[in-house]
Design brief:
Helix content: 55-70%
Distance between the termini: 25 Å
Order of helices and strands: HHHHHHHHHHHHH
Number of strands: 0
Largest sheet: none
Number of helices: 13
């Protein structure tokens, strides 16, 4: 892990932070190998096998966003009107982005600029890192996580094609708003980390700016928090819920999104848990009917976060539960002291 950490910092300063899906996957995979270096290589190769489709889908998602506008002028005025309608009474008739930059933006980098840059970067790592931990600890919950995450990304991408919308900085460049600075990565320069945003800046230049509605930055942040909230002690809930709020502040302040984008993104998260949860229950009921049993196996009844419903019955000491899809007869005998 020390070797991995040194290599990560060196690549971070020389190449940039891993904001590209394939680049981030390489570091996450290397991290799982370093953390579980005593495992056989077939386990590490299984990780790559399960994750390659995910990485390919994310790469296709990033590339397809650039074609979502189809040459049409993106929507902008209705987003401006929505933010002014909701917050104009408190911001003097301006959208929150302009009000925040008028009060907080300075030529010199401030401490909150640094915090905002790190929060912005976390979007590209937190969801993937959480999925990697789930893969190592509970493959069943990992599958539930990926189904919901994939549905959320697909719903967002479909919206980008149906309703291409531009962010505040684009509206300012085209005369629809007063000056808006795009400052999501400026905080890293305060520490001399000029190369930290290289990969991210290259991606921002290559992509087409029509992915404002909904904000998947805040949607991903809320999604990860809600997925684990049910299994987290309540005393940690305020800290967890502060993460999507911090992401909201970062995106609005840095000119990347309107507040209306954030609210729609949160609505998409709720829709995701509802639709995928209902689909899972429906599929479990279909399988139960086909098997002629009175109900689906306990591991197929999942909650919003993919956890199993009924508890597993007591088992003799030393006996392991067979993984999903394999019977206990297929498992090697495991001594009780292991």
């Amino acid at each position: 892990m020390t070797i991995w950490a040194v290599a990560f910092v060196a690549a971070w300063l020389g190449i940039g932070l891993p904001t590209d899906p394939a680049y981030a996957f390489v570091w996450i995979w290397a991290g799982t190998i370093a953390w579980n270096s005593d495992r056989p290589w077939r386990s590490h190769l299984r990780f790559a096998r399960d994750w390659v489709p995910v990485v390919l889908l994310l790469a296709a998602y990033n590339l397809s966003r650039g074609f979502a506008d189809n040459g049409a002028t993106p929507h902008a005025m209705e987003l401006i009107v929505a933010d002014r309608f909701m917050f104009g009474w408190a911001t003097g008739g301006e959208v929150p982005t302009i009000w925040l930059q008028e009060h907080l933006y300075h030529p010199q980098v401030q401490w909150y600029d640094v915090a905002a840059s790190w929060v912005y970067f976390s979007h590209f790592v937190v969801a993937l890192a959480a999925a990697a931990v789930l893969w190592l600890r509970d493959r069943h919950r990992w599958a539930a996580y990926m189904r919901r995450w994939g549905f959320l990304c697909a719903a967002g991408l479909a919206t980008y094609f149906i309703y291409p919308a531009a962010p505040p900085w684009w509206a300012a460049q085209n005369g629809l708003l007063t000056e808006v600075a795009r400052i999501s990565t400026r905080g890293w320069r305060a520490f001399g980390m000029h190369g930290a945003g290289n990969v991210l800046n290259a991606g921002q230049i290559a992509s087409n700016p029509v992915a404002a509605m909904p904000s998947l930055h805040t949607a991903w942040a809320l999604f990860v928090v809600l997925f684990f909230l049910h299994t987290t002690r309540r005393r940690w809930w305020p800290l967890l819920l502060a993460y999507p709020l911090a992401m909201t502040f970062t995106l609005v302040y840095s000119g990347e999104h309107y507040v209306i984008d954030v609210l729609v993104g949160w609505a998409y998260v709720g829709m995701t848990f509802l639709v995928v949860g209902l689909a899972e229950r429906g599929w479990a009921a279909v399988r139960a009917r086909r098997a002629g049993s009175g109900g689906p196996p306990p591991e197929e009844i999942t909650g919003p976060d993919g956890t199993a419903g009924p508890p597993e019955p007591d088992r003799p000491a030393g006996e392991r539960r067979a993984p999903v899809g394999r019977s206990s007869a297929d498992q090697p005998a495991v001594p009780a002291d292991r």
